[in-house]
């Protein structure tokens, strides 16, 4: 897999029946190692080890409904009150982070209403503070650190 601009970590990989799997510490199981999963697992590690989020407050590939369509959010971080806090949309490293990717994540966030939104391909990460009342985004220099206990 491609080297990312995210901290490396001691990930677990296994081979089975010609496929490669990576261990997901949140879901506690091995998942097929796709380029997007590679980015997601690195980003989860970043959230846990560098930003102080608790495993118990992360939900991965959660279902949501947008325009009567079933979609999946890559990573949602919740406050300890259960309120959605940060939505992260992950793409494979070779998928450019452009306006269409930000727009996709923003549409998903209309359902979740997270005050923070991030998009990453493991090479570039962009984070925004979302003002739903005024319909505005403010790009941030960094992700918000965990301000609550897990």
Give keywords.
globular, alpha+beta, 3-stranded antiparallel β-sheet, 150 residues, tt1808, chain A, 6-stranded mixed β-sheet
- CATH architecture level-2 label: Alpha-Beta Complex
The CATH topology comes to: tt1808, chain A
Sketch the major β-sheet: 6 strands, mixed
- Number of H/I helices: 2
Q: Flag low-confidence runs.
A: none
Please give the domain count: 1
Q: Proportion of β residues?
A: 35-45%
The end-to-end span amounts to 31 Å
Number of strands: 9
Instruction: Label the overall shape.
Output: globular
What is the averaged pLDDT score? 89
User: In CATH's first tier, which class applies?
Assistant: Alpha Beta
The largest beta-sheet arranges its strands as 4-5-6-7-8-9
Order of helices and strands: EEEHEEEHEEE
Secondary-structure-derived class: alpha+beta
The share of residues in helices is 10-25%
User: Compute the gyration radius: what is it?
Assistant: 15 Å
């Amino acid at each position: 897999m491609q080297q990312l601009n995210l901290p490396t970590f001691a990930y677990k990989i296994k081979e089975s029946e010609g496929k490669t799997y990576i261990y997901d510490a949140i879901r506690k199981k091995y998942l097929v190692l796709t380029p997007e999963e590679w980015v997601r697992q690195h980003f989860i590690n970043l959230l846990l080890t560098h930003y102080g989020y608790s495993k118990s407050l992360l939900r991965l590939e959660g279902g949501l409904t947008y325009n009567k369509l079933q979609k999946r959010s890559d990573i949602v971080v919740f406050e300890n009150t259960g309120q959605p806090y940060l939505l992260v949309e992950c793409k494979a490293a070779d998928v450019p982070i452009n306006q269409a990717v930000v727009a996709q994540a923003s549409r998903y966030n209309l359902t979740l209403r997270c005050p923070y939104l991030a998009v990453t391909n493991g090479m570039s990460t962009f984070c925004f503070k979302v003002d739903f009342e005024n319909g505005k985004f403010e790009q941030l220099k960094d992700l918000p650190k965990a301000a609550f206990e897990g």
